[in-house]
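Worked Example 4.2. Consider the chain below.
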Amino acid sequence: MLSRLTPRSCFRPKLVRKLSEALLIKDDDEGLQIQQDAIGSVTEEPHITEKGICLDGKNLLHVETRNMCKCEVCFGKHSHQRNKLPHIGNAFPDVKVKEVGKMTEHYVSLKWSDGHEGVIARTIRGEYGPGVIESRVKQWLNLTRRKNEAQRFWSSPNEEVTKAWDYSWVVSSGENTRQFLAHYMRYGIGLINGVPNDMGMEEILSEGLKIGPLRRTSYEDVDYVRFKPNPTNSAYGSDMLPLHTDLASYFEAPHVQFFHCMESTVEGGESFWVDTFAAIKTMSEKRPDLLEVLKTVPMTFRYTPPGRGVFQLSQHPVVKMCGEDIWQTVDILWSMDTAQLTRDEDFETRERWWDAFLYYRELVEDQNSWFVKKLVGGEFVMTDNWRVLHARKEFKVTAPEQERIVSTSYMDWNSMANRILSAEKGDHVFLEVDQH
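Applying the procedure from the previous section yields the following structure tokens:
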């Protein structure tokens, strides 16, 4: 580590023969985004520029380098969080790189104008640590970050979208579970069959998939959806439920929805799903002007059933972006507070919004883009509630013994990412700066 080296000698210029740089390698057959370190010949050694440094062919700002320091003074060995930040100027706004020193495969030594000597990482391994964490980050990091380049949009239900995974296989090893969860993140939907009849939702998630905790809502941890006369929620009726986002009336709708079919002997009641990201991509190509409206004008969503002590209200644009990536769609027709829209926006804005929204709905309501399936007992579906809308066709109960019972639950996206990327508990993956 730099602080253990003689200050001046460690900053002598080095002749650089090979440099590592992070590349994205796409495997189109499997739909994987693998971020890995590739070694390539570089003739230019790292050097200081007017605004920062050039390292491995990439320009870094002075302020970026100081905030990237991974020495044990700046970066906690046990927490992997930044340490000992000053009370004022803790982002180091005026600090500049003064010297570039020793460079190894994973790190380079730097000295800054505030007198600090440290190292910054050059590779994924240097940034996250060795072992399983390195391999998982390289393979799945961008998928867990919801980067569109790692996802696979579908405008029609292909074999990967409709693939049914066997429950026993999925839970037989941690690696199998990670493969299934990665598939779910890639397509926004994952179907499992063969769930034992005596298993409930919480057991499937905590003991089978080993994910959690559940996100509690006004429906508790687990809700059991079955027919009720005069329902306080449309889901408990038998009419068709149009394509929708669950719990859009929350300030942050749940990321992950679980749907466990326990019994379905009624006539009809098929479920269907659609990938809104595919529709939005089409919209961005054909009508970017209308897409801009859905990204900027918020709609209010409300759920206020009488007699339940519930008043849920929030507002969201239908489409949310994160940089250039499609991040989230929020859409539930029967909870849209259209009257509030008329109070919030002028006539011209509302007219434009309806033009945009109806164009978008025409795309998602194209039945050729739907994945339709009548679920039976023992089938389990995970959907990305921020991406894939779900719906149900009308059903009829023609005999007393007929039932349609499904349990539903929700979870935060972080729980999926944690299961895919993290090392096991007790596996102390420390950075290797002491070997620099």
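Residues 347-364 form the longest helix (18 residues). The longest strand covers residues 18-27. Compare this with Example 4.1 before moving on.
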